[in-house]
Amino acid sequence: MPLASTLVHLQCLALVPMALSVSACSESPASNTRAAQAGHHAEKSPPPDETPQGHTPLPKTLESGRPVIHQPSIMPSPDDAPAQPRRTRTIPGTALEFTMVRIPAGVVSMAGPDGAATEVKVGPFWAMTTELTWDFYDVFVFNLDEQGTHPQADAVSKPSRPYIPPDRGFGHAGYPAISMTTRGAEGFCQWLSAKTGRTYRLPTMAEWKHMALAGAAGPYSFADEATIDDHAWTARNTDEATRPVGQKLPNGYGLYDVHGNVMEWVRTLDGKGFRAAGGSYRDEPEDARADSFAEQDWEWNMTDPQIPKSTWWLSDASWVGMRIICDDETVGEPSQRPATTHSPTQGHEP
To answer: Which residue of 185, 237, 282, 307 could cross-link 322, Cys pair, CB 3.0 to 4.6 Å?
Structure first.
C-alpha cells in the first residue's frame, strides 16, 4: 500500500473512538430522561401500604444496619402534666427551693368507719410536687439554716439526733426523707410554717387520694396498669431501696411518686389518727394504689434500743416518708384584683 494511503487509513482508525464518544454525549435529553426514569423505577421499593399480604414490613434501619426502635422516654418532662398554677419557694436561710402546685377542688369516694363508701369534698389546696427529701429535713433536724448564729427560739420542738444513719445507706441528697414518726412529720410542718409565714401540714386521707388520682378513675393515676414501671418504684423494679424523687412520670397534677418509692404520712378523716399512703419500694404494684393505706404497728419501731422508744424516729420503717400541702400558697404575695368574681369557698386564684 502506498505510504500516503497508509497514513490516511491510520488517521481514520484513530478518529473512530472520538466519533463514538461524541455520539454518546450527543444523545437527546429525552433519551437521558427515559433512561433515568427506567433506572429509578427499577430501584424504587414499594410504599408501606403496598407491602404484599402475608409479609411484615421491615423496620427502618440506621446506617449501621440496626433497626430503629421507637420507645417513649419515662423521664419526666414539662409536657407530661397540665399547666396547673405553681409556686417555687425557698426556705429562709438556705438556697433550697421546692415547688408547690395547686390542686383543684373535687369529690373523692372514701370508705367510712362502717366500711360503706362516702363522698368527701376536698380542696382546693397546694401540694409539694415531690416527696420531702433529706435536703429539707436535714435543715430542720440539724439547724442548718442557722449555722454560725445562735439558734432562734421558734417554739417548735425538733427531733433528737438519730443514733443510726437515718437514710439506711440508700442515698441522701435528692432521696426521700424516711423513718420519721408522725411527730417528726408534723414538727417539720410547724417549723416550715414558722419560717415562711404560710401554713403547711400533712394531707388527710381524702386529700391525698384526690391529689394522687389527679382526676383518674383509679385505682392508679394512669389508665394502663401494665405501665406502672413508668410511674412508680415498687418491689417489681427496685432492689429493696428508695430512689431519688422525681425520676418517674408525674400524674395529671404534676405530682411525682404518688405510687411507690415511700409511703407518705396522712391524717385520718376524723383528724385524730394517722395512716401511711401509697405503697413503697418494698410493695407489689397492687399495694401501691391511690387507696392503699397502712396503719403503724409495733414492728415499725421494734429494734429501737431506747427506753422509752424514740418519739421522733422509727427504727424499722425505712419505707415511710412525707409530702406537705398548704391551704393557700399565695399568702404573703401582693394582692391582685381578680379577673372574675368567685366564691370565697373556692380559694384564691393566683
So the answer is: 185
pTM assigned to the model? 0.71
Contact yes or no for 290/278 (Cβ under 8 A): yes
Integer Cα distance of 160 and 180 in angstroms = 11
Q: Assess if residue 59 is contained within a domain.
A: no
Closest to 323 measured CA to CA, from 266, 246, 239, 260: 266
Read off the amino acid at residue 197: G
Domain assignment of residue 162, yes or no = yes
Residue type, 68: V
Is 69 a domain residue? no
**Residue 277: strand pairing partners:** 264, 293
User: Which contiguous run of DSSP H or E holds residue 13?
Assistant: helix 3-25
pLDDT at 207 over 90: yes
Q: In terms of residue numbers, what domain contains 198?
A: 82-335
What is the rounded average pLDDT for all residues in the chain? 78
Give backbone dihedrals phi and psi of 37, rounded to 5 degrees, phi first.
-65, -40
In angstroms, the CA 105 to CA 348 distance is 12
Structurally, how many domains does the chain consist of? Answer: 1
pLDDT band, very low/low/confident/very high, at 159 (cuts 50, 70, 90) = confident
